[in-house]
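User: Quick one: structure for sequence A, then sequence B.

Assistant: Sequence A:
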Amino acid sequence: MKIVKTKIPESSLLYPDRNHYHYIDSYEGAVKDKNNMIGIDDVAKAFLKPGSKWVGTLMTLRNKIVSLFGLKTPNNKMDADRPANFKFEVGERVGIFRIFSRTTNELVMGEDDKHLNFRVSLLLETPENDSSTKTITVTTLVIYNNRFGRLYFFPVKPFHKLIVRSGLKISLHELEMNAQKG
């Protein structure tokens, strides 16, 4: 499944505020959904599911390091494993994410911390020219609150890009398999 770097979609809830952020990236992929079974909750559950072991190892290392500086980490391992049963309602938390907003085709989550604020949008759209396909765009926006935020994100950025691309690819595969079964 092909993942491409793209621009933040104009249809995203985050688009109007895009100029207020210091960092933005968007990645997009497509999935076949002939029976129109995939919804935004399915996308979120697939994307937030524990992924590759190397991602889990990186996140564990990140959480150990940032906890020394008083930054937010998931409350416990159960939080990280909870997406399968999560309802993704505004104000609730899953792992390190708080749900900020949702529509029928977009979920915006993230966190505000003392060093930086970030938002992640999962946007599910059906192209006008192909109703049997869905596109999923993952957009990340970051505001640095201080120098430490910029310093923190500098080494994180390359891993962030790898993790998002890998997570989106795994999610697309799972969503397509589930759509074919359904």
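Sequence B:
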Amino acid sequence: MQLWCEHIHRLVHAHHFHPENTILLLDGIPRNRHQAEMMEQYIEVLMVLYLEAADEEQMIARLRRRALHENRLDDANEEVIRRRFREYEAESAPVLQFYPPGRIYKVDALPPPLEVLHDAIEAIEEGVEEALPAGR
């Protein structure tokens, strides 16, 4: 997170990033509430896209298949996957309480990947439209 903050700071000072009129799409950060608080001094978060997977067993099966397909055997271990879910619940889920509910856009992560991508793009378009004043 510190590297990200330093990078954004350098971009702003070099006039390569203009937070007042540039939209960033960040993947995987912030990972916890402290990181969300740190980011506030650099950017205004317009929306949070939350890929929600309500059926943990289905997600475990999907992650195992993907890990085997990509030959990442350590990631195919069910115990490792379950531990990551518990770590997410403890560390990352509280990020959703940090932002106002109106900024959280949920997308069901259980359908096939192309459907999830389509729904995510629609949610991003909707979130940006709602967050930005007309003409910005």
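The longest strand covers residues 48-52. The two ends are 28 Å apart (CA to CA).

User: Thanks, that's what I needed.
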